[in-house]
Amino acid sequence: MTDLERIKLFNGEPSFRLKKRPFYSIVIACYESEYLSDLLESIKQQHMKEDIEVILSDDCSPNQNYLEQVIPYLNDISIKCVQTDYNCCPGNTRERGSQYAEGEWLVFADHDDEFIADTLSGIKEQIIQSGEKYLCVANFYHRNCTDHHILEKMVRTRNWCHAKFFNIDNLWKPFDVHFKKDLMSHEDIYITTYTSCCLYNIKGKDEVFFLDTFCYYWNYHQESLSNRPYGDRTFIEVFLKDYLISTGYTYLETYYKRLISPLFAYENCAATMLYLYFYIVNMMMNRPQDYLTKNIGYARKFLIKIKQNFKIEGRYVTNQDLVKLTTDYNNLMYLNIRERAFGNTGKYEPFISFKDWLNLLDEDKE
Fold first, then answer.
1. Which of 259, 269, 260 has the alpha carbon at shortest distance from 310?
2. Is pTM, for the whole model, over 0.85?
3. Which of 129, 274, 283, 363, CA to CA, is 20 to 30 A from 45?
4. Around Cβ 71, how many Cβ atoms within 10 Å?
């Protein structure tokens, strides 16, 4: 049997056995991954052969010739190959890979990205010295894949799976963390939101351990899901439902599981509602004749959910309560979320206030 035939068995057997439990399990979601060799080379250049296992999770690629890139690394990196039951989305693929992780810390990498050489050993040292047991967040660069120009420094980010280290024994397994099945986008935000709620359950606040180390290149490719053209619609307009599932409904999910308090859930659901306001109003202004009206329906249903689940002083929450929460303390929440939302939409002046928008969605009944 050739190396390529052995890899295509997708049986989760490592290319060689490590002498001890690896510190890192790096899960890579693959689909006809033409850039995979660059990522594997960057893992080799960590010089941590006995501390890293790599799990390549294939999303039922119709053409698996990309796996030939793996063969030169079979003796340098302990590599497992697995495959999803059906082709769907990155979340399902990462989920399958994570099921084969045997390391102490779970790490996710995109097949067209790279690690920065000799950074993971320093992060291991920092984790051990700090005594952190749950979740660590490092920094990464958003980089042009063509000329390697740094587009943005991603410092202390929370919404990506890049440069995050999830402890398997103390966080991932005890809290039964899984990617949301068949979620087409925002799967990383779902995991970030869910694990933040787990940390709240542990510590009484969603506090992570930040590592001031740049360890990863998030390479910009025009053909990636978030960068593909959708006519002249934005990514957030096309996938707003996924965004809502990954944020607001995740806070409701963890609230039902009693992982988080009613107040923490309510405040974060209100924040999600405010994000929806900025996103949807922008969509309505950009395409007044043919914006996706279904997104208004998603927002309306979520607003009703908030009112059905949360109470203030014995009565159910109203639109006015949401406005008051988001504009208290000198509009701090409102202004912060507006600036973050503008990062996706660009700056604009809403044609309707948050209060009036809520009333249009679901006017309070006296």
1. 269
2. yes
3. 129
4. 16
